[in-house]
Amino acid sequence: MKVLFITSNRNKVVEANKTLSSLGFEVEQFLVGGLPPKFTEPQTSSIAEVSESKINQALELISGTEFNDHAILVEDSGLFIESLNDFPGVYSSYVSKTIGNKGIIDLLDDKSNRNAEYRAYTILHKKGVFFHALGVCSGLISTEIRGPNGFGYDPIFIPDFGEGRTFGEMEEYEKTEKSHRAKSLKILYDQLNRPSK
Predict the structure, then answer these.
(1) What is the count of structural domains for the chain?
(2) SS3 of 68-98
(3) Helix then strand then coil, % of the chain, to nearest 5
(4) What is the pLDDT along the chain (197 residues), one digit of tens a residue?
(5) What global pTM score does this model have?
(6) Residue 35 domain flag
(7) Is residue 90 assigned to a domain?
């Protein structure tokens, strides 16, 4: 099944394709005139609410077009740091662009609690039905930037698995198998493949 992923982040499309292709899905980035559509994000601390706003805007965008019958995928994700009251959370993309990984490490300089979670809230719309999934990957924030792989906060996020390595130090397949995004997509896949009653 072809799935149109509405995101401006090509890395997310690649990761989604690697997770879903073995399950029979073909994920493509949705573009309008060669560019990803821009959506208005609600002012909220909830990634679920951001994803719900995105899917509604996406469906409005494709209504009456050739894409009307395609499966549509949206996602909002973020890094939630316990000692920073879940900051950067829904603002993760903006914070990554402004203060970056070094800025996050500096914010935690005097904190012993470095617990954090990557969370991804994914919604897939197919033939009038909405499928929702939350994927969570727990871990810690490193005291230094480590590893050339991944994107965003990957070089400072140490997941609970992986022998103390950051996502940035892992091979792509290791992260793809157990990341927050992989978990949310696998939940969606399970929902889509439940036998009908």
Answers:
(1) 1
(2) CCCEEEEEEEEEEEHHHCCEEHHHHHHHHHH
(3) 40, 25, 35
(4) 789 999 988 888 988 888 788 778 899 999 988 999 989 888 888 999 999 999 999 999 988 888 888 899 999 999 999 999 999 999 999 999 999 999 999 999 999 999 999 999 999 998 899 999 999 999 999 999 999 998 899 999 999 998 999 999 999 888 878 899 989 998 988 888 776 55
(5) 0.90
(6) yes
(7) yes
Let me know if residue 197 belongs to a domain: no
Residues in the chain: 197
- Can you tell me the distance from the alpha carbon of 66 to that of 62, in angstroms, rounded to the nearest whole number? 8
One-letter amino acid identity for 33?
G
> Does residue 32 lie within any of the structural domains?
yes
CATH of the domain at 108: 3.90.950.10
Catalytic annotation, residues:
76
φ and ψ of 59, to 5 deg: -65, -35
Residue 75 near residue 7 (C-beta atoms within 8 A):
yes
Provide the domain limits for residue 95.
2-192
Preceding amide of 88 cis, omega within 30: yes
Which run of H or E residues covers position 50? helix 47-62
